Amino acid sequence: MLIPTLAGGLLLSLGTLPALAAPRTTPTTQPDTTAAPARTGRAHAIKLGLQSSNYTGQRPTLGYEWALGRHLSLETGGSYNGSTWRGGYSYVNDDNSVTDYSYYQRTRQVMGQLQARYYFQRRTPALIGWYAGLGLNTTYSYSFSTSTTQPAGFTTHRLAVQPQLRLGRQWALGQRFLLDTFLGLDMNKLPGRLPSGRRPWVATPAAGFQLGYRF
Asked: What's this model's pTM, rounded to 2 decimal places?
């Protein structure tokens, strides 16, 4: 009777070994994917384009933009515009003599701007999507004029600071290129003065586009 009892106890002990040897499993936590991904990738861009405004006319632009975070970026740039006019006419005096009148004018403008942009999208990549921009544009104007009645000519210089408002979108053209299109308003002070002596501000529409390379 003793041997069967010992054999049964040994079999019971061996049956419990797999349960004791089984490794313990701990629950794993999944990473939180609800947060919006930060803007990644190429956060700098060099751009070349054309801008048009009722106040400054059409001018080529060169700009550089870099991302500061998920939504913000800074763009700095410059542009140049120049024009030349020549003309003249003839008129008859009271004594039937003919007088020739001619004039010449040369104008140059150099502009630099700094603009802060806010991108509405919360997804990648950087510098792509709809944005609103607020900036300042500084314009230096030089003009030289001469005519038959003023052969020595005269020169004028002017420096102006213009607040700017922009609404636009940058489109991805492949992995590295982009197209920047925008509309906006330029705030300018008129050269003349009101009877009160004040120089009024006037808002002029502006539009433009730029082709850029991201890196």
From this structure: 0.69
